[in-house]
Each structure stands twice: as C-alpha cells, then as structure tokens.
Specification:
Layout lengths: L5 H9 L2 E4 L8 E6 L2 E5 L7 H12 L4 E5 L5 H4 L2 H7 L4 E5 L3 H4 L9 H4 L10 E3 L4 E4 L2 E7 L8 E5 L4 E5 L11 H4 L5 H14 L3 E4 L8 H17 L1 H20 L1 E3 H10 L1 H6 L6 H17 L3 E6 L2 E6 L3
Parallel strand pairs: 3-4, 4-5, 5-6, 10-11
Antiparallel strand pairs: 1-2, 2-3, 7-8, 8-9, 9-10, 12-14, 13-14
Helix pairs in contact: 8-9, 9-10, 11-13
The protein binds zinc ion.
Zinc ion binds next to loops.
Length: 319
Amino acid sequence: MTTFQPAIAATLDHLQARVLVRGWLSANNIVFHQDGQGQLVDTGYVSHADQTLVLVDHALAGRPLAEVVNTHLHSDHCGGNAALAARWPGLRITVPAASRSKLLPWDDGQLSYRETGQRCPPFVPQAFLADGDMLQLGGRPWQVHAAPGHDPDAVLLFEPETATLISGDALWQQRLAIIFPELDDTPGFDDAARVLDRIEALQPRLVLPGHGEPFTDVAAALAASRQRLAAFQAAPLKHRAHAARSLVVYNMLEHRRRPRQALVDWIASTPIFLKALQCVGDPDRAQRAAEATVARLLADGVLTASQADGIDQVQMADD
Ligand SMILES: [Zn+2]
C-alpha cells in the first residue's frame, strides 16, 4: 500500500478516504467509508479486476461495498464495475449523466471500447451525476463539476472544506491526457483549457488524480498541463501522434509481449488509430502508419524487440 506524506494522509483520514494508486493500465481507486459501508470512485481495467476486488476487499475490512462512482467511462476507470457488481449484489453504480444514453441500453457504437480496441464488460448504472449536483462520499458533500475535454462526459468531484479535488483524467501532475474528441475532428482543446481554468478557480489544495500519486502542487500541474495543451493546439498532428503512441502503449500494458505483426495489424484495423493517424479508408497507408508508430516506440526504447518461435516480438521495455 502506498504511504503518503503526513499532510496528505491526514486529509485523506479526515475525508474517510483511501487512495489505491494503481499502474497506468488501471486508474486509481478511491475507497470511502460511509455509514458502515464502502463507496468506490473508479474501478480500474478489466484485466486487473481480480486485483481490484482484493484491494477493495482489503480496504473495506469486511464492510460491504454499497456504491461505485465513475468519473468517466473510459475502460481503465470502469472496467471493474461488472466484477464489483457481481461480488456485491445491490451495488449502486453512479456515472456521469452525459453518458446515460450510451449505457441504457449498452451501446458499443457510442461507448469508446470498440473504437479503441479496449475491453469493458457491460454494467447497468442506477444513478447519474450532472454539473452542479452534490454527492455524499465518506459522509461529506462533494460538488460535481462537468469536465469535458479529455472526455466530453467526464466529471470532477470537489470537497470544499478540505479543497480536495478528484480530477479523473482532467488533471494529472505531470502529463496531459489525450483530448479524445480532437482525434475525431471534434473540438476539444478549448474545453480542456476551460476545465483547467475551472479547476484553478476551485483553488484545490489536494488533487487525487486518475493516474499517479496524490499531489498538492496544483499550480505547477496546471502550468504543465497548459503548456502541453498549448503545444498540442499549435501542432494538432503532434497530439495525434502522441495519442496513437499512448494508445499503443496502453494496449502493450495489457499484452506485455506480442508478435510485432499482430500489433501492427491491430493498430491498422482499430478505428481510433485510423482517425488519429488520418488513414480512414486507406489500408495501405494505415499499415505504413502503424509500422512507423511501432518503429518509433522501439527507437525511443518504450518497446523492445525480441524473437520467439522464429517470430518477431515486441514487448514493454521495462519487462
Ligand atoms: Zn480517461
């Protein structure tokens, strides 16, 4: 279990919260205690669902899990919902209201999973969060703020007394998450910039991000995100290339090692890459762009090449 600096640990205790910092394939999980029951914000990726169950069980110390809240419905934030609902029947699943029509009924075409080639087992939500709502977490009222940009439907959760922000993927300490609408030629950069302004106006003193450790130097994180966002706005092709790389890495975090050609073929046939790399309807160009993306990840040392059974393989460099 990660230990945090004393001031952060004290605030989390005060909020009846525990932050389970996960690897990048799974978003962090935040466990709250309320009325002898548990609540959980974000549930990780499906391939880590067993680990999520163990971690949440441990954090709850025998109490039942009553509610799951998702900041947004990317596969690394809600991939554990179905397993948790199976483990705790009657679990209430609360999601952003803007996603409601994509879930009821479950619509693979509207949700991002088919598009990104990622997996997420279906679940049924019972409650919805909209901008301006209040939500009880750990026995305290948390504000709900819309946070479009990275994901058009996403929400932020903010507790005013301690000025603690659950930022999802809208603000990380160092990096900036992909602005997904832009890959589909839909404006998203300006929304992302407005969300950073909105976060600044809330004056958070502690941020619990979707990925990475909790942090308190919010001004530095906002400055870094704004700088990165401005660079992407000035050169949208760089954002597209960055998005393609990040999505390949995400896939490799699940596979760890796979035949190089299988990875290239997967990239060249997965819709999000065709859009990001601007090769919709041009399979030859898609193959070349996919090969170039893998080659750059190898050249940069993010992936390494090997051979197994006479077949060229790629794997995560840190394996
Ligand atoms: Zn996300």
